[in-house]
Design goal:
Blueprint (H helix, E strand, L loop, with lengths): L1 H13 L4 H6 L7 H15 L10 H8 L15 H34 L3 H20 L9 H19 L17
Helix pairs in contact: 3-5, 5-6, 5-7, 6-7
């Protein structure tokens, strides 16, 4: 409820004029990004196992490009998952995906059994932040920005630490301020 209230206040203060127009301005069928994706899928078919190599999308895409796109330099697919498939192939995609799934599995399972309020909060934050970044990766080249990729893996690291850190009883400070046993 507090977050919802903050969002409502922010929208009221900043204004939402034009937001509806911006969201309905382009239909999905007219979005150039989807046309680029369709052309990029052909690259995956030609380089299925190992891909074209990291960072080579900008060099290989012009060979697969056909009509329907503006005359621009397309250096990213605007979809991290498709770009990973293009550049690293199915093998690289599965290896990276397995690492991400393993982290999320560890965090989710620990979230279910951890009873420490602070650690559960850390796990929830890592899961929420990681999920948001993964969702963002569907429509942008989010993880091609080093700060975003580092932030994602730091979140996963915080979550793994919160999942594996042993539970410790709080110190019992008596009225003297000394640790009592």
């Amino acid at each position: 409820p507090v977050i919802l209230a903050v969002v409502i206040v922010a929208i009221s203060w900043l204004g939402a004029a034009g937001l509806g127009e911006r969201l309905t301005d382009q239909s999905l069928a007219e979005d150039e990004r989807f046309n680029q994706w369709a052309q990029s899928v052909r690259m995956v078919a030609d380089y299925p196992v190992f891909g074209t190599g990291g960072g080579n999308y900008v060099h290989v895409f012009p060979l697969y490009r056909n009509g329907g796109l503006r005359p621009l330099l397309y250096d990213h697919v605007h979809n991290d998952y498709l770009e990973t498939l293009v550049e690293y192939g199915v093998l690289g995609f599965l290896l990276l995906g397995a690492a991400i799934v393993a982290c999320f599995w560890k965090l989710l399972s620990a979230y279910r059994w951890r009873h420490d309020f602070f650690m559960r909060g850390m796990l929830f934050g890592a899961l929420a932040g990681g999920t948001a970044l993964l969702i963002h990766g569907f429509l942008d080249f989010n993880f091609r920005i080093p700060a975003n990729a580092a932030y994602f893996w730091v979140l996963m690291g915080i979550g793994v630490v919160a999942a594996t850190l042993p539970h410790r009883e709080p110190l019992n400070l008596g009225s003297t301020g000394r640790v009592s046993s």
